[in-house]
Every structure is written in structure tokens, then in C-alpha cells.
């Protein structure tokens, strides 16, 4: 915010980020998946906060942070909920054969958050090395949504 000689205040937008800062913040957005190891679910919140702060200063950071947010919601939070529900159903119905049939699905769904962890780390490394990175299926959707 600047004050003009007439005393009026004008808003000046924040300066754009340097390429180095863009890569760093994009990497942090992707690596926010590691926050989930400690908290269980705060990783998407970190990614969306990065998006909100830097969306006007860098399209690159906005794109990568929104990708990380959507990806973590689907794979970490959604996968964790799906695994928990499947384990619960399998446990309740384990007295019957149907419950035992649910257990392989529960094991598969339990791997989803681990896949998200590895994929997020790969995304962080690639964006830090100035390589283009898109999450499978999610990257194109986010790009189409942000670019209008």
C-alpha cells in the first residue's frame, strides 16, 4: 500500500516471485504430503494455504499447490477414509465369509496414502529441479480449472 501526495492510499500488488522462489514454494506444496505423517490430515491445508498466499504472485506456484491440494484430498484423505471404512466393515462382518472377502480390499485401500506420499515426494523433487510435473489425471483437470 502506498500513500499518494494527495493523501489517498493506493494498493500495489505484491511483486512476482523469482524462479528460484517459485520452485521452492512449488516443492514445499508437493512435500506438504509429509505433514500428513505427523498430523494425519494437515497436508492439504498446507497446500491450500500456499495456494491462497501465492496465487496472485505466481501461476506456477498456484498450479502446483492446487494440484497438491486436490491430490492429497483424493489419495490421502479419501484413501484413508476408504481404508478405514473397509477395515471396519471387514471387522464387523468377519464372523461371516463376506467380512473375510473385504479384507483384501482393505489392504489395497490402506496402501493409497503411501502411494500419495511417494508421489508427492517425486513431485517436490521434480518441481525443485525446474521440471514440469503433473499428477496423473489431476494435473490436467487442475490446469483446466485454474486457466479457465
Tell me what you see in this structure:
This protein is an all-alpha fold and 148 residues long. The chain has one domain (13-139). 72% of the residues lie in helices and 3% in strands. It is built from six helices and two strands, in the order ββαααααα. The protein has helices at 19-31, 35-39, 43-54, 59-92, 97-128, 138-147, and strands at 2-3, 9-10. The chain has a two-stranded antiparallel sheet. The chain is elongated and about 80 Å long. The model has no long low-confidence stretch (mean pLDDT 85).
Strand arrangement, major sheet: 1-2
Content-based structural category: mainly alpha
Roughly how much helix do the residues carry, as a percent range? Answer: over 70%
Overall geometry comes to elongated
Strand content: under 5%
What kind of assembly state do the chains in view correspond to?
single chain
Indicate the radius of gyration in whole angstroms: 20 Å
Main beta sheet, described?
Answer: 2 strands, antiparallel
Report mean pLDDT, rounded to a whole number: 85
Gap from first CA to last CA: 29 Å
String of helices and strands = EEHHHHHH
* Overall strand count: 2
Q: Helix segment count?
A: 6
Spans where pLDDT lies below 50 across 5 or more residues: none
The figure for the number of domains is 1
Amino acid at each position: 500500500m502506498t500513500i499518494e501526495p494527495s493523501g489517498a492510499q493506493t494498493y500495489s500488488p505484491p511483486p512476482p516471485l523469482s524462479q528460484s522462489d517459485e520452485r521452492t514454494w512449488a516443492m514445499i506444496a508437493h512435500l506438504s504430503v509429509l505433514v500428513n505423517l505427523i498430523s494425519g490430515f494437515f497436508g492439504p491445508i498446507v497446500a491450500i494455504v500456499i495456494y491462497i498466499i501465492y496465487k496472485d504472485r505466481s501461476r506456477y506456484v498456484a498450479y502446483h499447490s492446487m494440484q497438491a491440494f486436490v491430490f492429497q484430498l483424493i489419495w490421502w484423505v479419501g484413501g484413508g477414509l476408504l481404508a478405514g471404512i473397509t477395515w471396519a466393515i471387514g471387522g464387523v462382518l468377519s464372523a461371516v465369509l463376506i467380512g473375510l472377502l473385504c479384507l483384501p480390499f482393505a489392504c489395497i485401500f490402506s496402501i493409497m496414502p503411501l502411494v500419495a506420499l511417494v508421489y508427492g515426494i517425486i513431485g517436490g523433487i521434480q518441481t525443485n529441479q525446474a521440471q514440469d510435473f503433473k499428477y496423473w489425471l489431476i494435473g490436467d483437470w487442475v490446469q483446466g480449472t485454474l486457466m479457465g
